[in-house]
Amino acid sequence: MCLALNVHVCPWLRVHVPVVFEARVDSGCPCILLFPLLYLPFSPVRVSLPLLLWRRYLVAADELQANFTGKQQRKGVFILPHAVSKVFALGHPKPPKIFEDSSAEDEEEAPSARQSGKSPKAGAQGDRGASSQKAPTRRRPAKDPATTANDTSAEIIFDKGDESEDELPKSFTFDWDAYRAVWGDTPYEDAVTALFAEYALLYGRIAGWTMAGAPTPMTLQEAQSLHDHAGEFIEKYVRPILGEVHTPKVHKLLRHILDAIRMHGNLTNGNTSSNESGHKVDKRFYRRTNRVAKTFTTQIARQSQGTQALLARMDKLDADAIRRDKLRRARRSAARGGQLTALGKRCLRGVPRITVGALSQRPGLARLSSLLDIHPNTKLHVLGRVIFMAKLDDGTALRQTLRSYSAFRLKGTWFDVAVYTIDGDAPVVDEDGVKPRMRYGEVRALLRYREEDVAIVCDLQVVDAEEDCPLAERGCKRFKWAVPHSREGDWQLRVVPMSRILRVTHVVPDFAELTARCGVKALPARYCAPVAERRKMRFYENAFFAWA
User: Fold this and answer.
1) What angle is formed at CA 442 by the lines to CA 427 and CA 196, rounded to 5 degrees?
2) Coil, strand or helix at 534
3) Which end of the chain offers a freer environment for a tag, N or C, measured as fewer CB atoms within 10 Å?
């Protein structure tokens, strides 16, 4: 099934990535459109995104426009830094087309043209186009012959497609000198990864996203820092990689973001969704007006304001009643010596019970019986999710949901990765002070006891990232599966109480390593794959994930 990743990354950058999801590789040459300047064909690849979490970002290839809200489109920003390393992976160049009705002269010129990477028509114009960077044809920009040997990867990137829509515009140019002046010998796909990663950080600051920590309060100093960050992003990333982008919104980002913050204060969410959503309340009162153009606006405002004031007064009365009820229950609990009332008791009613033997059929839980030291026929209360108050890296409290489903809505597994601590670990001392040592693991099961909920975790081990990795430079940790002693099974399992779990984090496969190891068409190893293949997988923590 051929799908497409269609995300509005920002007001001036729209990415439409045709993706082949698990079924086959498209026979055509997909492309990535960096609107409005650069149009880059690339080799057909497979991109495996979490189906359950990001299924709404995958649309049919023939669908013209995905039905996304503005909020969903903007939150596609944190997906792209990890996806482009796979999307821009270079495959084998396509064989040149041979036209049967060509003349004898063209057939003689074809071998030499194929050796130089140019079509016969482009070879005839080579003398005229070698001195400039403007493409002599619509399919490939001309290049300096002196740098042809060093640009083999770029030659494949700008290779021609099979369809007319894959062709480059006539006026297409790309300044390789400007690119090398900033990025040197950095591969183009790594530079694009850094571009999207830096934009995710910049947009997260503008929109006030809660990622690994809470957003910094907007002050004049923070506004000046944001202004400098935007200027560095345009000068160091956009211009060398995408070229000159002459759009009003890029100009506003480069020159007017500081003035906008001074005049309007905090840029809440970086959009007008909060203001526009207010129209939904007012629209329902339109039918109560006389629909006269000169007066219906005043009638809507009068009825809407009166109704909202009444609803706000009723909500306040309800909140006061709930607060008094909680206070009454707390006093009753204190009078009983701290014993909880019926409202606060941990309830096991309605929680499904599954035997340990059946629970051991989940991926990696083969030795669950020995881990818990109970008989396989013993039944346990198993949860699918737990809602708890998480603690971010900066100490901010945030409400999160920890999920562990073997068959979420009968469509597939959903195992979240949790950050937790254990007793006896030595603290970490760095320049920021003393911090607890954080561990990472995928939650394979959630068990409920009367005392406390516990999670069965399959441990992940932190490993060093590659040198100059743009993701690691921006706080994305790299992992591999922790391998225990041979007598302890294939996977390192641990029982972690919910009181020890700090927060939920988002982890994605290392697509660059997967492509280098298994090729462009390789997919991440599934839970049913051999143990050796799964242990070879590497992962990255998505530090750009927006939790709020």
Assistant:
1) 85
2) helix
3) N
Give residue 68's identity as a one-letter amino acid code. Answer: F
Q: What per-residue confidence (pLDDT) applies to 131?
A: 36
Q: Exposed, middle or buried, 379 (CB in 10 Å: 0-12/13-18/19+)?
A: middle
Q: How far apart are CA 293 and CA 359, in angstroms?
A: 65
Which pLDDT score, from 0 to 100, does residue 382 have?
94
Residue 373 neighbours by CB distance under 10 Å: 6
Instruction: Please tell me the distance from the alpha carbon of residue 82 to that of residue 193, in angstroms, as a whole number.
Output: 7
Q: Which helix (H) or strand (E) holds 481?
A: strand 478-481
Q: Which two tokens stand for residue 251?
A: 């100009």
- Three-class DSSP category at 256: coil
What's the pTM value of the predicted model, to 2 decimals?
Answer: 0.68
332-363 CB burial, b ≥16 within 10 A, e <16 = eeeeeeeeeeeeeeeeeeeeeebebeebbebb
- CB-count exposure of residue 537 (10 Å: 0-12, 13-18, 19+): middle
What would the DSSP string read from start to end of 162-201?
SSGGGSPPTT----HHHHHHHHTT--HHHHHHHHHHHHHH
Point out the residues of the chain with pLDDT beneath 70: 1-71, 89-168, 266-273, 336-346
Amino acid sitting at position 283: K
* Integer Cα distance of 473 and 544 in angstroms: 12
pLDDT tens figures, 159-170: 444 444 556 677
SS (H, E, C) 363-415: CCCCCHHHHHCCCCCCEEEEECEEEEEEECCCCCEEEEEEEEECCHHHCCCEE
Residue type, 196: F
According to the model, what pLDDT value does residue 216 have? 84
First to last CA, the chain: 33
Q: Report residue 327 as tokens.
A: 């206070």
